Each structure stands twice: as structure tokens, then as C-alpha cells.
Amino acid sequence: MRNRLLLGIGTLLAIAGLTLGTPAAVARADTTTQTGQAGAVTIKATWQGVEAGPVFTMVLDTHAVNLDSYDLTQLATLRTDQGMEAAPIGWEAPAGGHHRQGTLTFPLTQPNGIPVLTGETRQVELSIREVGGVPETVLT
């Protein structure tokens, strides 16, 4: 089962360095948080914006399983419509049992020096594998 959610045109335009007719902070405020369901686990990802790069605040919430064993550096992948794919370089999240919140960080560049996100990027997917018994949950 794959959950697909739109990241929002305002966010993608912000990545490209373009703007809508509203201030960027307003445009991003409603479009940077996406929520998906992985079995009994709710996954919420909030992109931290252009200045932060590929950094997400992640919230995992459930009443069914202990979430402390999920290491998102092993379970997450960021993909772009430009063919880039990146594994996280950091998952900072204190133990929380049924409620866990932390920061998931991806590299700014690939090992070959090519940026993960560019002005050409129009779509990103945040893939979380094997959470809540679901093979893959994708926030797009």
C-alpha cells in the first residue's frame, strides 16, 4: 500500500526559487506538512524550507506499537523527479514509545557533488519503509 500526498505547489516553487502572489512564508505554511498512514502508525513530515535544505521534522504516532525501534536513517529515502535518490544522514529523535518526534536530515549533495534538490526539482518523494507492517509509505 502506498500513500501518496502532494507536497504542495508553493513548496515546489520555493525549491525552484520562484514565488506565488503571496509571501513565501504564507505559501509554505500550509503546504509543507504531509501526513500518511502506515498501518496503525501515523507519519507526519514537515519540510523545514529552502534555507534548511532537505530537512524534515518527523512525527510518528500510534497506540499500537513501540516506535523507538524505528531508525529512519535505515528506513527512509528521498527521491526527486530529477532522478536523485538520497539516504538520510541523520535521525535525531529521543525515545518516545508511542509518540516520537525528531529531525530527519538528508545531504545537500550526492557523493559526486551534484545537489540533491535543484531549481529544476518539481517533485520529491519521502519514502518510509517497513513502518507499521506496511512495506512502503510515500509522501509526495
- Write down the overall geometry: elongated
Helix content: 10-25%
What's the Cα radius of gyration? Answer: 15 Å
Total strands: the figure is 9
Note the total helix count.
Answer: 3
- CATH T-level fold name: Immunoglobulin-like
User: In terms of structural class, how would the helical and strand content be classed?
Assistant: mainly beta
User: Would you list the SSEs in sequence order as H and E?
Assistant: HHEEEHEEEEEE
The CATH class turns out to be Mainly Beta
- Approximate strand percentage: 35-45%
Spatially, the strands of the biggest sheet line up as 1-2-3-7-6
Name the average pLDDT. Answer: 80
Distance between the termini: 14 Å
Level-2 CATH architecture: Sandwich
What profile does the largest beta sheet have? 5 strands, antiparallel
> How many structural domains are formed by the residues?
1
- Flag low-confidence runs: 1-31
Structural account:
The protein is mainly beta and 140 residues long. The chain has a single domain (9-139), classed as Immunoglobulin-like (Sandwich), CATH 2.60.40. It is built from 3 helices and 9 strands, in the order ααβββαββββββ. The protein has helices spanning 9-15, 24-29, 72-75, and strands at residues 33-38, 41-47, 55-61, 76-80, 85-86, 90-92, 99-105, 124-131, 134-139. The strands form 2 sheets. The chain has a 5-stranded antiparallel β-sheet, with no helix packed on it. It is elongated and about 40 Å long. It starts with 8 loop residues before the first helix and ends with a strand. Residues 1-31 have low confidence and may be disordered.
